[in-house]
Design a protein that fits this description.
Shape of chain A: elongated
Number of helices of chain B: 8
Number of strands of chain A: 36
Oligomer: heterodimer
Structural class of chain A: alpha+beta
Structural class of chain B: alpha+beta
Radius of gyration of chain B: 30 Å
Low-confidence stretches of chain A: 1-15, 1122-1189
Largest sheet of chain A: 9 strands, mixed
Order of helices and strands of chain B: EHEEEEHHHHEEHHEEEEH
Mean pLDDT of chain A: 82
Helix content of chain B: 25-40%
Strand content of chain B: 15-25%
Distance between the termini of chain A: 35 Å
Strand order of the largest sheet of chain A: 14-35-34-33-15-27-32-31-28
Strand order of the largest sheet of chain B: 2-11-5-8
Largest sheet of chain B: 4 strands, antiparallel
Largest interface: A-B, 108 and 106 residues
Distance between the termini of chain B: 42 Å
Strand content of chain A: 15-25%
Shape of chain B: extended
Low-confidence stretches of chain B: 1-6
Number of helices of chain A: 42
């Protein structure tokens, strides 16, 4: 399954623009003439022959590698070459081969995936026979047969299906992440072909349609058959990537194959995300190039002066080319120094950065504390290049459903006839917290009960069993008034297909309490009431819509009694109650408030007995209204209004939108880490607000929660400004804009504004649309960023992305978007970091995400632990890496002044080659993979530790400048101490020690020991591996040095190892060691002193916590386990049907009452399902919204 | 993505994957840093005193004989036209110059560390590989062939510029000169003499024949096989003076060992008295403002005289001690309190 979509990554190139697709069924010859792509896909990049040349070509396009080659060319010019070729070739080869190996393994995986997908089998109609064919051999124009639970082979035109009305059901989870089934319907004409192979083989319809494109929600084309032309739209098309469900078989005509399918056309546009450190590094690299040029210029000027003053007279001893003059010499020297000083440009840095990011990504994958046992899903770092950014998040944009909540509704409480049920109390009458262990109500008396249903209050069952009429009426209503579809595969095993989980929960509750909804036809609803099968005649459905906020059904009981059952938002129902219910209303209102305070979604239920005559009259008028051509909706509404009055209140139900585990705690932790959380949800305002409260985002302690819900642009602006003025009266009208200094980029960065106290903001989708307009978006941004929590409700996927984009563009902050569904894809892709909730059926969000895990609560671990560590490690790594390379290089610079600016290296060439690759590589990688300031528990204990990352404190231009100065100092020490110590001195036997080779050895040993000790100073967390790497590297240095300076090496490779004997002759001298010791101490002690004084005088949060850890010596106290606080509120929760469309559409369409009663074969009882007559669903994708202005 | 019914995806529970490797987590606490500084400071002071005192015991006698000033003894040799110039430098010692005494010549403003100078030699020639006698490597250019295109052996700038002043030392006792024996053996590195440089094997018993078809370096008065005709072990590429010269200096001011005074009456050092040094002045340095020096020195365990290390240790040591006091004061006064919640 994954292989199908792992295809992401390559964009299919079109040879020529196809304007229209024209194909004929069962006519391969005709179709082949157009050279349409067949159904084979290719996501791999290389084959055996192209791998090496193509890959190398790609690699050399990278700046770093190109720079290596440039250096290599310079080194091959004898006049310039100041270093042997191997100093460049060895690292280059290493880098190239590592990348080569990685690309190779990636491509092999892709090849395997391609093969796997291409070799799937499908039945294809060839020459009048069904043959099993590989997917890749399927051609445009072929007719294929799909069976239940099979993947759709290509983009197909649906011809016929096993189901009545030529319907099929598909699941589009792979495509857009939505798990509910969708319906597609074939044209009646083609549907008649059935599964008659002869007819199908004779079918020769011609299809003309749009060329391949990536729009999942749209298809236009025509089918011409026997001279007749039929329009084709998206309802007839099955897209590759979908799965056939609940359908025995279907036939389809291949329209687009392989790379032309919409799935493939949609892949490969993934934007390459880069972290802010990457951007900073690019800036720094440019600066370093400049700095390199600057150093080389100084040295070449020095060379010109030297040549002019000394060189000419020194001619006796120097080999000089004819015609050499000072300026030519200076020019050549410039390039020679470019070679020598090339190590300031951190080329090997890029490789190392990739390695350590990969390492830190593995730690995320490996973390058992982010592994979800129930769904067997470990966390996954899908992008391995963004880790350190996780430590810098300032804004989190979260989806609600499926992310904060489980999208599971549970029937939790109800109020029936003034009595509240559902609460568990102990003997003392105290409320008990419901946990896993709380005893559940036993529903075994009801054979049709849903075993998964949990309820904890035993009283309710007793009341139901005792036959209380109100309670029975309550559940009867729940069993009758809904649009749920039942499915009874085997006797007694009922499944409900509910579009909205709320409805599902309510009907399931009724089922368990003995009012089992068993089946329905357009005219009847069959229940099993307390074990007795009962059939109600369904006379009318008064459907739900956003204005009415209620739905009703009118049924006739077996006894012939006419009743209207109505459920809806409490406020709406209350307006329509009979005065006799007023007393009950008061009690129920109290209960409703209580439920709402707990964040439950409530509904009020009422009924009314109808008079037969009255109903007949009403029915007539209803018929008139429903058949009228003008203003039908409005007329129907009025008709409904007429009958839905004088209702008698039954009670109220409360459904819990279950939060995922640990959501409130996580949000609290993240808030402590000064991360602002914005919830962007498609839900209604009331629902969203409720969730905001129940997950601790909106808090009672907040000074105010602003609600922006206006209908015009001006009103929205006014409300935003008012809110802002309230929070910060002195804030000016003009946003405080920090002009970005980068030339050519007109980015406006809005600074943060100070606010006292905490505020919240709720804004609805309508207002958001206005607020996101160009002239108002900064206003929105200012106001919203002043608030602790922001909730945007009723937002479209596109708006989600716009909000993220707004913050990303105008705030100097790192954003993270987290979501689970297809509607979150756009924001996940837009944000700096996208996180997908995995382990559920939909994959779309995960596939476009950078990180994925199963539960929202893992976010705190991802950010506060992994993110923080990654950031810390990355910054430490960069700081140290720059330090060691600058120090290394600057010594050459100083030496230039003592060697006639001749581009003489200080160190042995082999040392230069191996310094970055061998001697210092592993310790710094060890540092950047294992280091942690404090362990994970302390990181949770002090979320404030997260702040330095948000403020970019560990690595910035300032930090870089400090490194530069530090390196300058160190290199001065490392050059001038050996210089002074060796000047005019000799060995203890009077022989030479101030010779070039001994000096080189001394300088390089000093350098290596000094940077190693510096590394030790930077390491907070000394694992055995760190120790091993550090000591190992030093030992390797000495071992390699002694080996390379040995007699044997010289005798074998005479000209490569001229340093023979140097190590033996100079490392046995006490003054050499005293010099090494002195330089090391002089490099390190000032750093120690500075750090110590800073810890004392200006301790950072980090220092404080580390100090605390040291004192505590043990693990931190476990976090106090807080029970979610009860909110006492007068807030009234609204009627909350699920936000999802779906069967809601069906109901709204008003067609339900007008189902034409056809005579159907009894074989297919399902046909009566309203689904059969419903408008097939369109895909909800981001493209849908993209169209609307 | 789940694999159908396969093993659980649960990550392994190891200290490594869970990032819980046992680790030592040192912090810069006052208890370590302040005493640390003090101890290092005291240690440095101790080493510094030792080094400084040692350095003071080393005797050094330096004489510039370039002949820049008109009244200096070698002035007449600086005039270009004079050939085979000899000059005499006199000095007197008021006390015994303890032996063994090392006799150095020193050059300053002389860039043996110039890159192109440094690479200008042929390692293969110098290992006695006669193949390279015929065709010296390109790096030797322009000292690889003479004007008649004969290969030069040893080729390259370093060899070509070999220092060729020679010295004789006399002690003047009652107006008569007594020659001080100078020991020129073993003044180069053991590895240079035994491994790195080797003479070509003699052809037909004649060492000089090995050099047939080659010419001497342009600046040399005599060929490599004539450097010391008295001692075959000190001839050719194994000539000690040649080896010393070939080990090029790191800095533009350097000294190189010329001879040791270890024999005869002078084994214990140079006694007090007057000395005369005869210089065969051949080596021109004035053109590039260079200087030539004569240095007599003895050594200690820490090598030649170098006050720098001792002083540096003393300075750093005292700074450490001062720093530890400063840090102690800061710590006592400003130490951040633990009670404010981090």
């Amino acid at each position: 399954m994954g292989s199908l979509l792992s295809a992401c990554g390559i964009n299919v190139k079109k040879k020529k623009v196809e304007e229209e697709r024209h194909l004929r069924a069962n006519d391969r010859e005709f179709n082949l003439s157009f050279k349409y792509a067949n159904n084979a896909i290719k996501t791999s990049k290389y084959n055996v022959f192209t791998f090496l040349p193509l890959n190398l070509f790609e690699q050399f396009q990278r700046l770093a590698n190109a720079y290596f080659v440039f250096l290599l060319i310079l080194q091959l010019i004898p006049q310039i070459s100041s270093l042997s070729w191997f100093t460049t070739v060895v690292p280059l080869l290493l880098v190239l081969s590592i990348t080569l190996a990685k690309d190779l393994s990636d491509d092999i995986t892709r090849h395997k995936n391609d093969n796997h997908v291409n070799n799937r089998k499908v039945e294809v109609l060839i020459n009048g026979e069904l043959k099993s064919e590989k997917w890749m051999n399927v051609q445009v124009g072929d007719i294929v047969k799909l069976e239940n639970n099979e993947f759709v082979t290509a983009d197909l035109l649906l011809l016929s299906s096993s189901e009545p009305l030529n319907l099929i059901y598909i699941e589009t989870a792979e495509l857009d992440g939505e798990t509910n089934l969708k319906v597609k319907q074939a044209l009646t004409l083609t549907g008649d072909l059935g599964n008659d192979i002869q007819k199908l083989a004779a079918f020769n319809g011609e299809v003309r349609c749009e060329p391949p494109n990536n729009r999942l929600d749209k298809f236009t084309g025509t089918l011409t058959m026997r001279g007749e032309t039929f329009a084709l739209d998206n309802e007839r098309i099955l897209l590759r990537g979908c799965t056939l469900r609940n359908t025995e078989w279907c036939f389809g005509l291949v329209v687009f194959g392989g790379p032309d399918t919409k799935l493939m056309q949609n892949s490969g546009k993934s934007v390459f995300k880069r972290t802010s450190i990457d951007h900073l590094m690019n800036v720094l690299v440019m600066f370093i190039f400049g700095f390199l040029a600057f150093m080389c210029t100084i040295l070449s000027i020095g060379n010109a002066i030297w040549e002019y003053q000394e060189g000419n007279s020194f001619i006796t001893f120097l080999p000089r080319a004819d015609g050499a003059n000072a300026s030519l010499s200076a020019f050549l020297t410039f390039w020679s120094y470019v070679i020598i000083l090339n190590t300031v440009v951190p080329i090997s840095l890029y490789v190392s950065v990739e390695i350590l990011r990969l390492g830190n990504s593995y730690f995320i994958d490996w973390d058992r504390k982010m592994y979800h046992v129930k769904s067997d899903t470990p966390a996954q770092a899908r992008t391995t290049t963004l880790n350190e950014e996780l430590g810098q998040i300032k804004y989190i944009f979260s989806d609600k459903t499926g992310t904060l909540t489980q999208n599971i509704m549970t029937f939790n409480r109800c109020s029936i006839n003034g009595k509240s049920y559902g609460e568990v109390v102990d003997f003392a009458g105290q409320r008990v917290e419901v946990t896993e262990k709380t005893e559940k109500v036993d529903f075994s008396w009801n054979p049709l009960a849903d075993p998964k249903f949990c309820f904890h209050d035993h009283k309710l069952v007793e009341v139901v069993k005792s036959g209380s009429p109100e309670v029975q009426a309550f559940f009867r209503l729940l069993a009758l008034c809904h649009t749920v579809m039942p499915e009874e595969k085997t006797e007694g095993e009922l499944f409900y297909q509910a579009q909205s989980p709320d409805e599902g929960a309510l009907v399931t509750a009724a089922r368990n309490f003995g009012f089992v909804f068993r089946s329905r036809t357009p005219e009847t609803i069959s229940l099993v009431e307390m074990g007795v099968p009962t059939t109600y005649e369904l006379l009318a459905v008064l459907d739900f819509n956003n204005v009415r906020k209620r739905m009703s059904v009118i049924v006739r009981s077996p006894e012939g009694k006419l009743t209207l059952f109505c459920k809806g938002a409490d406020t709406i129902i209350y307006e329509r109650l009979h005065p006799s219910s007023s007393k009950l209303m008061e009690v129920t209102t109290e209960h409703l408030n209580e439920y709402a305070g707990e964040g439950l979604r409530t509904l009020a239920l009422a009924y009314k007995d109808l008079d037969e005559d009255e109903f007949e009259k009403w029915k007539e008028r209803h018929h008139e209204a429903s058949t009228s051509l003008e203003d039908r909706e409005a007329k129907l509404d009025t008709i409904y209004e007429e009958i839905e009055k004088d209702l008698l209140l039954l009670g109220a139900s409360a459904v819990e939108d279950k939060l995922q585990d640990g959501v409130p705690q996580t949000i609290e932790q993240l808030a402590k880490a000064d991360i602002k959380i914005w919830v962007l949800t498609g839900d209604k305002q009331e629902t969203a607000e409720n969730i905001g409260y129940s997950c601790n985002m909106l808090r009672e302690e907040m000074k105010e929660i602003f609600i922006v819900a206006a209908n015009t642009a001006e009103e929205v602006r006014e409300e935003l400004v008012n809110a802002r003025k309230k929070m910060s009266p002195e804030s000016g009208d003009e946003p405080p804009i920090e002009k970005s200094r980068l030339l050519g980029k007109k980015s406006q960065v809005v600074e943060d504004e100070k606010v006292d106290g905490e505020y919240g903001l709720v804004i609805n989708g309508h207002s958001l649309a206005f607020a996101l307009q160009k002239d108002m978006q900064l206003e929105l941004l200012r106001t919203a960023c002043m608030c602790q929590a922001v909730i945007c409700c009723r937002v479209t996927p596109l708006q989600k992305a716009q909000v993220v984009e707004l913050v990303k563009k105008h705030k100097k902050a790192v954003t993270l978007a987290i979501g689970d569904g297809a509607n979150d894809v756009s924001m996940i892709k837009t944000a700096h970091i996208g996180v997908g909730i995995s382990g559920q059926e939909g994959m779309q969000a995960v596939l476009s995400s950078d990180f994925s895990f199963a539960q929202f609560r893992y976010l705190q671990r991802l950010l506060l632990v992994h993110g923080r560590w990654s950031y810390l490690r990355m910054c430490k790594f960069l700081r140290y890496f720059f330090y060691k390379n600058f120090t290394f290089t600057f010594v050459h610079f100083w030496y230039g002044f003592f060697c006639g600016f001749s581009a003489q290296t200080v160190y042995d060439e082999w040392f230069i080659t191996l310094y970055n690759l061998v001697y210092t590589a592993l310790p710094v990688i060890g540092l950047s993979i294992f280091d942690q300031d404090v362990n994970d528990r302390w990181s949770f204990q002090y979320p404030q530790l997260y702040a330095p990352g948000q403020l970019n404190q560990y690595f910035s231009k300032m930090a870089f400048a400090r490194i530069l100065l530090h390196s300058c100092y160190s290199s001065l020490v490392l050059f001038f101490i050996p210089w002074a110590a060796m000047c005019d001195t000799v060995r203890d036997d009077g022989k030479d020690i101030a010779d070039y080779q001994s000096f080189a050895l001394l300088a390089q040993t000093c350098l290596l020991i000094a940077v190693s000790v510096q590394m030790g100073l930077d390491t907070y967390y000394w694992t055995a591996v760190n120790q091993f790497f550090l000591w190992g590297s030093l030992s390797v240095y000495f071992a390699v040095t002694f080996t390379m300076y040995s007699n044997g090496m010289y005798l074998i490779f005479t000209s490569s190892f001229p340093f023979i004997g140097t190590a033996r002759n100079s490392l046995n001298q006490p003054n050499v060691w005293l010099t090494i010791f002195l330089t090391t101490i002089l490099c390190i002690l000032p750093v120690v002193a500075k750090r110590f004084l800073f810890i004392q005088l200006k301790p950072t949060i980090n220092d404080k916590v580390r100090h605390k850890v040291r004192q505590a010596k043990a693990v931190p106290p476990p976090l106090p386990r807080k029970f979610p606080r009860r909110r006492i509120s007068t807030r009234r929760s609204g009627y909350a049907f699920s936000h999802a469309r779906g069967y809601g559409d069906l109901v709204t369409s008003g067609r339900f009452l007008r189902i034409p009663v056809k005579s159907r074969p009894a074989l297919f009882p399902h046909t009566d399902t309203p689904v059969a007559d419903s408008t097939p669903q369109t895909y909800r994708t981001i493209f849908e919204e993209a169209q609307s202005p | 993505m789940k694999n159908e019914g396969e093993a659980s995806e649960q990550p392994d529970n190891t200290a490594f994957t869970q990032q819980q490797l046992p680790a030592w987590q040192p912090i810069l606490s006052a208890g370590i840093v302040i005493p640390g500084f003090l101890i290092i400071g005291l240690a440095f002071l101790g080493i510094g005193i030792g080094l400084f005192l040692t350095s003071q015991t080393i005797q050094v006698l330096e004489m510039d004989y370039t002949g820049v000033e008109k009244d200096s003894p070698c002035f007449q040799c600086t005039i270009q036209s004079v050939q085979n110039c000899t000059c005499e430098v006199t000095f007197s010692l008021s006390a015994l110059f303890t032996g063994p005494v090392f006799f150095y010549y020193g050059l300053s403003n002389y860039f043996q560390n110039f890159r192109k100078y440094g690479v200008s030699k042929d390692y293969y020639q110098l290992t006695g590989d006669t193949q390279y006698f015929k065709s010296p490597r390109d790096v030797c250019f322009p000292y690889s062939h003479d004007s008649k295109n004969n290969p030069i052996v040893p080729c390259g700038a370093i060899a070509n510029s070999m220092f060729n002043d020679t010295f004789e030392l006399y002690q003047i006792i009652n107006g008569t000169k007594k020659k001080v024996p100078l020991d020129g053996k073993g003044i180069s590195w053991w590895t240079d003499f035994n491994i790195k440089y080797r003479n070509p094997s003699s052809v037909n018993g004649s060492f000089a024949s090995a050099f047939d078809g080659t010419v001497k370096p342009i600046n040399w008065p005599k060929a490599a096989y004539e450097l010391d005709l008295t001692d075959p072990n000190n001839n050719g590429f194994l000539n000690q003076d040649f080896l010393v010269w070939m080990r090029r200096a790191a800095l533009p001011q350097f000294r190189k060992l010329y001879r040791r005074i270890t024999e005869g009456d002078y084994a214990g050092g140079l006694p007090a008295g007057n000395y005369s040094l005869t210089v065969h002045y051949n080596y021109p340095v004035l053109s590039f403002d260079g200087r030539k020096k004569l240095v007599f020195s003895n050594v200690s365990w820490m090598g030649g005289k170098n006050d720098f290390l001792g002083i540096a240790y003393l300075v750093v040591g005292s700074l450490c001690v001062v720093m530890s006091v400063v840090m102690l004061i800061v710590y006592a006064k400003f130490k951040f309190s633990d009670d404010d919640d981090a």
